[in-house]
Amino acid sequence: MNDIMIKTERLTKTYRRYRKKEGVLGSIASLWKRDYEEKIAVNQIDLSVGRGEFVGMIGPNGAGKTTLIKMLTGIIAPTEGDIDVMGYYPNDLKNEFKKQYAVVMGQKSQLFFELTVNDTLHLFKEIYEIPEDAFQKNKSYFTELFDVRELMDVQVRTLSLGERMKMELMVSLIHNPKILFLDEPTIGLDAVASMQIRSFLKIINEENGTAILLTSHYMEDIRTLCKRTVVINRGVKIYDGATDGLFEGYQKNKRIAVTFALPVGNLDIKTPTAVLMENTPYKKIYKVSKQSANILLAELMGHGPKDIVTEEEEIGTIVERIYQEGGGCLGKIS
Ligand SMILES: Nc1ncnc2c1ncn2[C@@H]1O[C@H](COP(=O)(O)OP(=O)(O)OP(=O)(O)O)[C@@H](O)[C@H]1O
Ligand SMILES: [Mg+2]
């Protein structure tokens, strides 16, 4: 059995975008001569994902993550390079291929807003030709897992964002896909809802062996779920290796936000490396080196805070550092 689920070589997508000159005259001029700009959204990416792997994909806005997922799922065709997903060329959109993967995009729903989730599931049962017993088994498994029994018969458009995301996952998993592509599944969700989604994804990956490729702007998603992370910047893969290695090697600082129930003046903070980034009576934000984060946390606790939140550094900062420091011994840099 072939254990490589996804393989791309020099995969490239160049978009051609029409550029209109300014104003009415520009519009008229462009009737005769159109100016196009070419944009290399994905540039020579080699990627290989094995059976049951859980791979994170991060990169700044416009890096090419969604474009890569669109090529892997056949929504768009590559401009150059080779692509093989479970033995198929995705853009052929063969039915046999479509039955074996699922894609969930946080910003784009695949649900029918006027239907109930139950109806939608039945529709997908027909589309994917799922046998009755497998369908019932999966339906009760996910209803239980996501704890959504009372939501099965309400119209999708009445669901909250967090509830809808559970339903998106349920609908996309009902046919037992071997690969699940997730493009920002936790976007806009609050802390509790994202944590729930993360725990479902972990179960789906571990119990069902579903390979998952996940993009997210939330480092927390990547850190808690993905053993391996791919970093993309301007269409180019700049890191592919252990998630731990990425954070250990390139993350130097943490951000700690502390809030107070009553207004507080300047705090006399002694923790080394702590830099005050934002100072208001009810909230202070500090940047602190990773090593000193716990010291700062303890020091802040002494000031009787209402809440303290530790955040990972933003992806942009990590990307910059990869460039500054090079790949070195960490991961496979290409
Ligand atoms: N249909 C299109 N036509 C022309 N250019 C496009 C098209 N879709 C995307 N692009 C461009 O390709 C680049 C990559 O876009 P893509 O959506 O893949 O980025 P992304 O990594 O998913 O970003 P984000 O984190 O913001 O979702 C961007 O510069 C974008 O402007
Ligand atoms: Mg995107």
Short description:
By secondary structure, the protein is of the alpha/beta class.
Protein model, in words:
The chain has 334 residues and is of the alpha/beta class. It has 2 domains: 4-248, P-loop containing nucleotide triphosphate hydrolases (Rossmann fold), CATH 3.40.50; 253-311, Alpha-Beta Plaits (2-Layer Sandwich), CATH 3.30.70. The protein has 11 helices and 13 strands. The chain has helices at 23-32, 65-72, 95-98, 117-127, 132-146, 161-173, 191-208, 219-225, 243-250, 293-301, 315-325; strands spanning 4-19, 35-50, 54-58, 80-85, 101-105, 179-183, 211-215, 228-233, 236-242, 253-259, 275-279, 283-289, 307-311. It has a 6-stranded mixed sheet, with helices on both faces. A 4-stranded antiparallel sheet has the order 11-12-10-13, covered by helices on one side. Strands 2-1-4 form a 3-stranded antiparallel sheet. It is globular. The model is unreliable at 328-334 (pLDDT under 50). The structure holds adenosine-5'-triphosphate (ATP) and magnesium ion (MG).
Bound molecules: adenosine-5'-triphosphate, magnesium ion
- Nearest-angstrom radius of gyration? 23 Å
What proportion strand?
Answer: 25-35%
Structural class designation: alpha/beta
Based on Cα principal axes, name the global outline. Answer: globular
Low-confidence parts lasting 5 or more residues at pLDDT below 50? 328-334
**DSSP helix fraction:** 25-40%
Give me the CATH fold name of the largest domain: Rossmann fold
Order of helices and strands: EHEEHEHEHHHEHEHEEHEEEHEH
Q: What CATH architecture of the largest domain do you see? A: 3-Layer(aba) Sandwich
Instruction: Give me the CATH superfamily of the largest domain.
Output: P-loop containing nucleotide triphosphate hydrolases
| Straight-line distance between termini | 28 Å
Q: What's the number of helices?
A: 11
Number of domains: 2
* Side-by-side strand order of the widest sheet: 5-6-7-3-8-9
Mean pLDDT: 91
Biggest β-sheet, characterized?
Answer: 6 strands, mixed
By CATH reckoning, the class of the largest domain would read Alpha Beta
